Amino acid sequence: MTQFFTILLLLFFCNTITAQVYEKKIDSLINSEFNDKNGPGGVFMVTQKGKNLYKKAFGKANLELEVNMTPENVFQIGSMTKQFTAVAVLILEDQGKLNVNDPISKYIKDYPSGDKITIHHLLTHTSGIKDFTKMKSLSSIAQKEMKPEMMVDFFKNEPVDFILGEKFDYNNSGYVVLGYIIELVSGDSYENFIKKNIFEKSGMSHSYYATDRQIIPKRAYGYHKKEHGYVNKTIINFSVPFSSGSLMSTVDDMVKWQNALNQNALLSSKELKKAFQKYKLNNGEEFTYGYGWHLKDINGTPTREHGGSIFGFKSMGVYIPSEDIYVIGFSNCDCHSPTEIVKNIAKETLNLAKK
Question: Which InterPro entries does the entry link to (predicted)?
Answer without folding.
Answer: AmpC-like (IPR050491), Beta-lactam-related (IPR001466), Beta-lactam/transpept-like (IPR012338)
